[in-house]
Amino acid sequence: MTAVEPQLPVDDAPGDAVSAGTTATTAKAGRSRVPWRFLGGRAAFYLFTLWAAITINFFLPRFMKGDAVDQYLARNRNVSPEAAEALRALLGIDTDKSMWQQYLDYWALLLRGDLGVSLLHGLRPVSEVISQALPWTVGLVGFATIISFLIGTIGGAIVGWRRGSRADVLIPITTFLSTIPYFWLGLLAIAVFSVNLKWFPIGKAYGVGMSPEFTPEFIGQVIHHGTLPAVTIIIASLGGWMLGMRNMMLTVLDEDYITVAQAKGMPNSRVLWRYAARNAVLPQIQSFALSIGFIVGGTIVMEMVFSYPGVGKLLLDATNAKDYALMQGVFLVITLSVLIANVLADVAYAFLDPRTRQTEA
Q1: Phi and psi (nearest 5°) for 125?
Q2: CA-CA distance, 107 to 354, in Å (whole number)?
Q3: Which of 30, 186, 229, 280 could, after both became Cys, cross-link 305 (CB 3.0–4.6 A)?
Q4: C-beta atoms surrounding 225 within 10 Å
């Protein structure tokens, strides 16, 4: 990918690109135009994607053998056939209605903000069940993803800038750690730091007997229980961020505008962060947006290994129980989070990348 050549500041490059000594195209004076055509096209694309995802979300669970009521009847054989049919009607899988009618009813409920009820959780509203699990996943996986992105991106930029130095040893080390199966890395961390050293608890989100409340004691328990899984996530994902940023830095450093900036006597720190890293980070933005979107889905393996409550384990339990409403609710939240993250990434691209702004012109 060809790096985006940033416009030099006014005091460094008054005039066109040739007088500034770069190969950049001449920038138009004045305020940058908002790329409405680009943003409108992306909005239409994401609306279509949302419709397709919701449609697949509706039909896919119904292709599975059995349903949540069958699972419930297998555990409770004293339920009458009338009660079973009432449960199916309540869950939106009434056999008296065609699949098309069920699909229309599903859309009608969604437009009213009703995700249905979860049979697995005693007919509690799906939105309530998800809202209780969502903060745990977003808090843990979100924090770990952001920290991993920042450390990997900054570290990759420095390693790329100092190419050929001893800092290059960080790349194979972090890449090797990223290739280790996550569940094995988590079990190893538990064996070393929880069982042997007893520095951290084995699992759960907080201590036994504690009730969730906004107090210093409870917050300390959450941090103590979440440190080990968070560090494990950071270690497992750090290599990808660092390697990607380092490779983009090597490409950007060969561009003419970097050579010109250095020839003009600019400080290395300014060339590194204002010109080289600023261009090299653009591909990282899209990957980071996808990672932010998938945070809502959580890391099922992490939540299973550390017995951590979250959306990932919730989805696994709903799948095993064939709880259609809960499955659809979790998938919908994950889909929306991924789409919103990509929209934000596209908006960031539109204002950071001049070539994107030129698509409207």
Answers
A1: -60, 140
A2: 40
A3: 186
A4: 23
Alpha carbon 298 to chain centroid, angstroms: 8
Instruction: List phi, psi (to 5°) of 100.
Output: -65, -40
Pairwise CA distance, residues 309 & 251, whole Å: 42
Task: Give the residue among 60, 36, 63 at the shortest CA–CA distance from 346.
Answer: 36
DSSP 191: I
* Distance between start and end Cα atoms, the chain: 22
The band of 26, judged by pLDDT with boundaries at 50, 70 and 90, is very low
Nearest-CA neighbor of 309 among 217, 214, 212, 187? 212
Q: What is the tens place of the pLDDT at every residue in 174-225?
A: 888 888 877 788 888 888 888 888 888 887 777 777 777 777 888 888 888 8
Q: Residue 360 has what pLDDT?
A: 47
Domain ranges within the chain, ordered by starting residue:
130-358
| Coarse DSSP helix, strand, coil percentages of the chain, rounded to the nearest 5 percent | 70, 0, 30
Q: Cα–Cα distance between 322 and 315 in angstroms, integer?
A: 10
Residue 192 half-sphere exposure toward CB, CA atoms < 13 A:
8
How many CB atoms sit inside 10 A of residue 123's CB? 13
Amino acid found at 281: V
Give the side-chain half-sphere CA count within 13 A for 330.
28
Class of 130-358 per CATH?
mainly alpha
| Listed residue (284, 285, 343, 353) closest to 42, CA to CA | 343
Residue with tokens 């809202």: 131
Residue with tokens 């709880």: 323
| Residue 116 main-chain phi, psi, to 5 deg | 90, -170
